[in-house]
Amino acid sequence: MTSEEKIRSAFANKDWQEIKVTDSWQIFKIMAEFVDGFEKLAKIGPCVSIFGSARTAETNPYYQIAVECGRLLTERGYGVITGGGPGIMEAGNKGAHMNGGKSVGLNIDLPFEQFHNKYIDHNKLLEFDYFFVRKVMFMKYSQGFVVLPGGMGTMDELFEAITLIQTGKIARFPIVLVGTAYWGGLVDWIKTHMLEKEHNIHAEDLNLFRLVDTAEDAAEHIFRFYDKYVLKPNF
Predict the structure, then answer these.
(1) In this predicted model, what pLDDT tens digit does every residue of 97-155 receive, in sequence order?
(2) Mean model confidence pLDDT for the chain
(3) Which residues contact 88 (CB under 8 A, 6 or more apart)?
């Protein structure tokens, strides 16, 4: 078997460890992640993504808020998508799972901390190597974002969504930040520095997200946004 045939065979069997990745051959691995994601997620109905830190403990009040968000969303026929890991992600999946709703996890392969949680539907768990492919899945298949306290990854996903909506690259959908104590300082900085001092954004950009403190308010903002549509239970 030639080197090229070995590489093709490895890609066919998803045996990534056997592949000596070059820039050109890496395209096929990226394509494989897109294809797997599109094939699975294209079958889902309306879903909302819940974001937040993987490090949030079960005893943290924000964990409980995320559980309640998952429950409330599935009550109205939405599925829940998370990054598939522990912490806030686990809580969102838990709320959906315990309420009999559909629970999706887009897990990422990391050298530390990330492992998929047990509340994801077994046939709705996707594994990714590339953050940018994973983010495409979130943007394409989510009807809304509920963003609880998190770290750099949470910030990345939040501002990616705001930027794509602001620039008209994707249709607008509701974005809810949960936790005034956590997000309030950032929102104030955006207003005073980005908007008023440097004029780097427009005033209407502040309307691209909503700041709340409860699961009920977060879910209600999403429900109101889609009141004009008839949403069937997903999956």
Answers:
(1) 999 999 999 998 776 655 789 999 989 999 999 999 999 999 999 999 999 999 999 99
(2) 89
(3) 50, 51, 52, 53, 54, 56, 62, 63, 66, 82, 148, 149, 150
pLDDT attached to residue 203: 97
Round to whole Å and give the CA distance between 131 and 150.
Answer: 16
- Taking the C-alpha atoms of residue 150 and residue 58, their distance in angstroms, rounded to an integer, is 14
User: Quick one: DSSP state of residue 104?
Assistant: E
Query: At residue 8, does pLDDT exceed 80?
Result: no
- Count of other CB atoms within 10 angstroms of residue 126: 22
Q: In what order do the strands lie in the sheet with 79-82?
A: 125-128, 103-108, 79-82, 47-51, 145-147, 175-178, 210-212
Burial 67-96 (b: 16+ CB within 10 A, else e): bbbbbbbbeeebbbbbbbbbbbbbbbbbbb
Nearest-angstrom CA–CA distance, 16 and 215 = 41
Q: Is 33 helix (H, G, I), strand (E, B) or coil?
A: helix
The confidence score (pLDDT) of residue 106 equals 96
Strand (E) or helix (H) holding 108: strand 103-108
- Alpha carbon 57 to chain centroid, angstroms: 19
Q: How far apart are the first and last CA of the chain?
A: 43
**Structure confidence at residue 15 as a pLDDT band (50, 70, 90):** low
